[in-house]
Protein backbone atom coordinates (compact mmCIF):
# COMPACT_ATOMS: atom_id res chain seq x y z
CA UNK A 1 0.00 0.00 0.00
CA UNK A 2 2.90 2.38 0.65
CA UNK A 3 3.88 2.02 -3.01
CA UNK A 4 0.28 2.65 -4.11
CA UNK A 5 0.05 5.93 -2.19
CA UNK A 6 3.47 6.99 -3.45
CA UNK A 7 2.38 6.36 -7.05
CA UNK A 8 -0.88 8.24 -6.48
CA UNK A 9 1.18 11.24 -5.45
CA UNK A 10 3.34 10.77 -8.55
CA UNK A 11 0.46 10.78 -11.03
CA UNK A 12 -1.24 13.91 -12.34
CA UNK A 13 -3.33 14.93 -15.33
CA UNK A 14 -0.54 15.27 -17.88
CA UNK A 15 -0.83 18.34 -20.08
CA UNK A 16 1.99 17.61 -22.52
CA UNK A 17 2.96 14.11 -23.66
CA UNK A 18 6.20 13.00 -25.27
CA UNK A 19 5.00 11.91 -28.71
CA UNK A 20 8.18 9.87 -29.28
CA UNK A 21 7.49 7.45 -26.42
CA UNK A 22 5.09 4.55 -26.89
CA UNK A 23 3.57 2.15 -24.39
CA UNK A 24 4.84 -1.40 -24.81
CA UNK A 25 2.49 -4.16 -25.94
CA UNK A 26 2.97 -5.86 -22.58
CA UNK A 27 2.05 -2.78 -20.55
CA UNK A 28 -0.93 -2.03 -22.78
CA UNK A 29 -2.17 -5.57 -22.17
CA UNK A 30 -1.89 -5.00 -18.41
CA UNK A 31 -3.89 -1.78 -18.65
CA UNK A 32 -6.56 -3.50 -20.72
CA UNK A 33 -6.81 -6.25 -18.13
CA UNK A 34 -7.15 -3.67 -15.34
CA UNK A 35 -10.02 -2.08 -17.26
CA UNK A 36 -11.61 -5.47 -17.92
CA UNK A 37 -11.49 -6.41 -14.24
CA UNK A 38 -13.08 -3.17 -13.10
CA UNK A 39 -16.13 -3.27 -10.92
CA UNK A 40 -19.49 -2.22 -12.36
CA UNK A 41 -23.08 -2.20 -11.20
CA UNK A 42 -24.38 -5.79 -11.14
CA UNK A 43 -21.13 -6.70 -12.94
CA UNK A 44 -22.84 -5.84 -16.23
CA UNK A 45 -20.08 -3.66 -17.76
CA UNK A 46 -22.57 -1.79 -19.99
CA UNK A 47 -19.93 -0.14 -22.15
CA UNK A 48 -17.25 -0.67 -24.76
CA UNK A 49 -13.66 0.57 -24.63
CA UNK A 50 -12.10 1.88 -27.82
CA UNK A 51 -8.31 2.08 -28.09
CA UNK A 52 -7.46 4.56 -30.83
CA UNK A 53 -3.99 4.32 -32.36
CA UNK A 54 -4.68 5.57 -35.91
CA UNK A 55 -3.01 9.02 -36.27
CA UNK A 56 -5.44 10.30 -38.89
CA UNK A 57 -8.42 9.33 -36.78
CA UNK A 58 -6.91 10.99 -33.75
CA UNK A 59 -6.44 14.21 -35.70
CA UNK A 60 -10.17 14.21 -36.37
CA UNK A 61 -10.89 13.50 -32.72
CA UNK A 62 -8.59 16.33 -31.68
CA UNK A 63 -10.93 18.77 -33.39
CA UNK A 64 -13.83 17.32 -31.40
CA UNK A 65 -11.74 17.86 -28.24
CA UNK A 66 -11.15 21.56 -28.88
CA UNK A 67 -7.64 21.03 -30.18
CA UNK A 68 -6.15 19.48 -27.05
CA UNK A 69 -2.67 18.18 -27.85
CA UNK A 70 -2.96 15.14 -25.57
CA UNK A 71 -5.32 13.52 -28.06
CA UNK A 72 -2.62 13.24 -30.72
CA UNK A 73 0.64 13.31 -28.74
CA UNK A 74 -0.09 10.55 -26.22
CA UNK A 75 0.86 6.99 -27.03
CA UNK A 76 -2.78 5.88 -27.15
CA UNK A 77 -6.21 7.43 -26.83
CA UNK A 78 -8.83 5.44 -24.95
CA UNK A 79 -12.53 6.19 -25.31
CA UNK A 80 -15.05 4.76 -22.87
CA UNK A 81 -18.41 4.49 -24.63
CA UNK A 82 -21.52 3.61 -22.66
CA UNK A 83 -24.25 1.46 -24.13
CA UNK A 84 -27.42 3.40 -24.88
CA UNK A 85 -30.92 2.08 -24.21
CA UNK A 86 -29.43 -0.81 -22.23
CA UNK A 87 -32.04 -3.46 -21.45
CA UNK A 88 -33.05 -7.10 -21.63
CA UNK A 89 -30.60 -8.11 -24.36
CA UNK A 90 -27.61 -6.88 -22.39
CA UNK A 91 -28.87 -8.60 -19.24
CA UNK A 92 -29.48 -11.86 -21.11
CA UNK A 93 -25.94 -11.72 -22.51
CA UNK A 94 -24.55 -11.19 -19.01
CA UNK A 95 -26.32 -14.22 -17.57
CA UNK A 96 -25.26 -16.34 -20.52
CA UNK A 97 -21.67 -15.37 -19.71
CA UNK A 98 -22.22 -16.24 -16.04
CA UNK A 99 -23.67 -19.59 -17.05
CA UNK A 100 -20.70 -20.47 -19.27
CA UNK A 101 -18.07 -19.15 -16.85
CA UNK A 102 -19.42 -20.80 -13.70
CA UNK A 103 -20.93 -23.82 -15.44
CA UNK A 104 -24.40 -23.34 -14.05
CA UNK A 105 -27.70 -23.36 -15.96
CA UNK A 106 -29.22 -19.98 -16.78
CA UNK A 107 -32.54 -21.23 -15.41
CA UNK A 108 -31.04 -21.49 -11.92
CA UNK A 109 -30.54 -17.72 -11.90
CA UNK A 110 -33.99 -16.79 -13.20
CA UNK A 111 -35.06 -15.06 -9.99
CA UNK A 112 -32.09 -12.74 -9.94
CA UNK A 113 -32.34 -12.19 -13.70
CA UNK A 114 -36.00 -11.18 -13.45
CA UNK A 115 -35.22 -8.83 -10.56
CA UNK A 116 -32.42 -7.19 -12.52
CA UNK A 117 -34.60 -6.78 -15.62
CA UNK A 118 -37.38 -5.24 -13.54
CA UNK A 119 -35.01 -2.82 -11.81
CA UNK A 120 -33.27 -1.67 -14.96
CA UNK A 121 -35.85 -1.77 -17.74
CA UNK A 122 -38.40 0.12 -15.62
CA UNK A 123 -36.14 3.18 -15.73
CA UNK A 124 -36.71 5.81 -18.45
CA UNK A 125 -34.20 5.57 -21.29
CA UNK A 126 -32.48 8.81 -20.27
CA UNK A 127 -31.96 7.49 -16.74
CA UNK A 128 -30.56 4.22 -18.08
CA UNK A 129 -28.17 6.11 -20.33
CA UNK A 130 -26.98 8.22 -17.41
CA UNK A 131 -26.50 5.06 -15.37
CA UNK A 132 -24.44 3.27 -18.03
CA UNK A 133 -22.34 6.42 -18.52
CA UNK A 134 -21.52 6.45 -14.79
CA UNK A 135 -20.22 2.89 -15.05
CA UNK A 136 -17.50 4.00 -17.45
CA UNK A 137 -15.96 6.14 -14.70
CA UNK A 138 -15.39 3.06 -12.55
CA UNK A 139 -13.38 1.54 -15.40
CA UNK A 140 -11.53 4.83 -15.86
CA UNK A 141 -10.58 4.74 -12.18
CA UNK A 142 -9.04 1.29 -12.59
CA UNK A 143 -7.07 2.55 -15.58
CA UNK A 144 -5.74 5.52 -13.60
CA UNK A 145 -4.62 3.36 -10.69
CA UNK A 146 -3.06 0.62 -12.81
CA UNK A 147 -1.23 3.13 -15.00
CA UNK A 148 0.25 4.85 -11.95
CA UNK A 149 1.65 1.51 -10.78
CA UNK A 150 3.35 1.15 -14.18
CA UNK A 151 4.54 4.77 -14.19
CA UNK A 152 2.38 5.48 -17.22
CA UNK A 153 0.73 8.88 -17.44
CA UNK A 154 -2.99 9.32 -17.97
CA UNK A 155 -5.08 12.38 -18.67
CA UNK A 156 -8.81 11.83 -18.06
CA UNK A 157 -10.76 13.99 -20.49
CA UNK A 158 -14.34 15.22 -20.39
CA UNK A 159 -13.47 18.22 -22.56
CA UNK A 160 -14.85 17.05 -25.89
CA UNK A 161 -18.07 17.13 -27.89
CA UNK A 162 -19.65 13.66 -27.53
CA UNK A 163 -21.88 14.08 -30.57
CA UNK A 164 -18.87 14.83 -32.77
CA UNK A 165 -16.88 11.91 -31.37
CA UNK A 166 -19.89 9.65 -31.91
CA UNK A 167 -20.13 10.83 -35.51
CA UNK A 168 -16.44 10.37 -36.27
CA UNK A 169 -16.38 6.85 -34.86
CA UNK A 170 -19.87 5.80 -35.96
CA UNK A 171 -20.84 5.01 -32.39
CA UNK A 172 -24.53 5.80 -32.62
CA UNK A 173 -25.06 2.97 -35.11
CA UNK A 174 -23.42 0.63 -32.57
CA UNK A 175 -25.73 1.74 -29.76
CA UNK A 176 -22.87 3.55 -28.03
CA UNK A 177 -22.08 7.03 -26.76
CA UNK A 178 -18.66 8.52 -25.98
CA UNK A 179 -18.78 9.12 -22.23
CA UNK A 180 -15.20 9.93 -21.20
CA UNK A 181 -11.74 9.74 -22.80
CA UNK A 182 -8.23 9.17 -21.51
CA UNK A 183 -4.90 9.90 -23.17
CA UNK A 184 -2.18 7.52 -22.00
CA UNK A 185 1.57 7.67 -22.51
CA UNK A 186 4.57 9.42 -21.00
CA UNK A 187 4.93 12.98 -19.78
CA UNK A 188 7.13 15.37 -21.74
CA UNK A 189 10.07 16.78 -19.81
CA UNK A 190 8.82 20.26 -20.75
CA UNK A 191 5.44 19.74 -19.09
CA UNK A 192 5.68 22.18 -16.20
CA UNK A 193 2.55 20.74 -14.59
CA UNK A 194 4.48 17.72 -13.31
CA UNK A 195 6.34 19.97 -10.88
CA UNK A 196 3.23 21.47 -9.31
CA UNK A 197 2.38 20.42 -5.77
CA UNK A 198 -0.70 18.21 -5.65
CA UNK A 199 -3.70 20.09 -4.33
CA UNK A 200 -6.32 18.08 -2.45
CA UNK A 201 -8.65 18.71 0.49
CA UNK A 202 -7.31 17.87 3.92
CA UNK A 203 -8.66 14.86 5.81
CA UNK A 204 -10.67 17.18 8.07
CA UNK A 205 -12.31 18.86 5.09
CA UNK A 206 -12.99 15.67 3.15
CA UNK A 207 -14.02 12.98 5.62
CA UNK A 208 -17.01 12.81 7.97
CA UNK A 209 -16.99 10.03 10.56
CA UNK A 210 -20.43 9.19 11.94
Automatic annotation (TrEMBL):
Domain of life: Bacteria
A Pfam cross-reference name: Nitroreductase
Statement: the UniProt record of this protein carries the keyword Flavoprotein: yes
Keywords: Flavoprotein, FMN, NADP, Oxidoreductase
Cross-referenced SUPFAM superfamilies: FMN-dependent nitroreductase-like (SSF55469)
Cofactor or coenzyme needed: FMN
Keyword Transferase (UniProt): no
Residues covered by the Nitroreductase domain: 10-186
GO molecular function: oxidoreductase activity
UniProt record similarity statement: Belongs to the nitroreductase family.
PANTHER family cross-referenced by the UniProt entry: NAD(P)H NITROREDUCTASE YDGI-RELATED (PTHR43673), NITROREDUCTASE (PTHR43673:SF2)
Protein name, per record: Nitroreductase
